[in-house]
């Protein structure tokens, strides 16, 4: 099939990762069905409409996770679906009592829509918050973090709060739900499912005029913002879950998504991160390379952990990361400066 005849759906289209993914998909010649929560929000719609080739090959659809069936229209006619929309704040007034219920119901509805519509592959933006190497009995970490690890939801990690725990639950239960619909071509049921367990994403996406939440986590040492979902505490929570923090550049994430699309056959769970670093190592890098930002001493002191990054599945398939730790961290500073989040 010619690429422009191949239709690809991307949910949550105006987000940090999704907008860059759509830019790349249009650039490669695909026709894209993007969903947004609110087609009346010009600040988000205009980001996508301004992309090269959007006039001829981008169709926008309105779909809210709190109304799962709304995604069906966008999925119709597509061969591949990337599910990136994810609720961070609970919306009252719907049938769901929290973000987890809404996210899992949407994951299930989207997977069923994919089966019904003859979609070839569903690719989900999962998270490393679902792949903690913490042992179920709370006695420390396994030796390595890889695709066999599932976060024990009954354990409460240090630095957690209701918001972070809700995100962990929503991503973990949604990923399990989506994986249950996958079958390899050999198994013959039709829908292949890939869950890409993405590390903390950094790097600049110049389509956006604000600093994305995950970029704000990277530079939380520099703005000394301790609390809140984009603060140092959230970064430390990721470190508590993982032992260290898996990180990856937004360009590599989007390339990994497209790599999964381009495989003749692929199914299952893959973690996606190019480096595995501690919060102290991030702070030390900024202290050495961006001395204009004084780093508090407490950010330079931390626990040394032996847990290793053990995930190789994506690279065994042939995927290559192009961005190293330096590029990720420097591009976070560049993004924050460009958008005014950092003043110096
Ligand atoms: N960034 C990371 O470090 C990271 C790491 C691992 C996994 N991920 C996953 O990757 C995906 C994209 O993340 P991101 O960093 O690009 O986040 P983002 O910029 O906040 O994008 C999230 C998207 O979800 C949409 N959304 C939120 N609530 C919704 C609702 N009720 N109905 C429909 N759409 C809704 C948002 O739409 P609006 O624009 O309308 O708000 C937004 O487009 C998410 O699934 C996230 O969990 C991200």
Automatic annotation (TrEMBL):
Keyword terms of this UniProt record: NADP, Oxidoreductase
Keyword field contains Iron: no
Gene3D superfamilies (alphabetical): NAD(P)-binding Rossmann-like Domain (3.40.50.720)
Gene Ontology MF term list: oxidoreductase activity, acting on the CH-OH group of donors, NAD or NADP as acceptor
NAD-dependent epimerase/dehydratase domain: residues covered: 8-263
Alphabetized InterPro entries for the sequence: Epimerase_deHydtase (IPR001509), NAD(P)-bd_dom_sf (IPR036291), NAD(P)_dehydrat-like (IPR050425)
Cited PANTHER family: NAD DEPENDENT EPIMERASE/DEHYDRATASE, OS07G0601900 PROTEIN
The protein, known as: NAD-dependent epimerase/dehydratase domain-containing protein
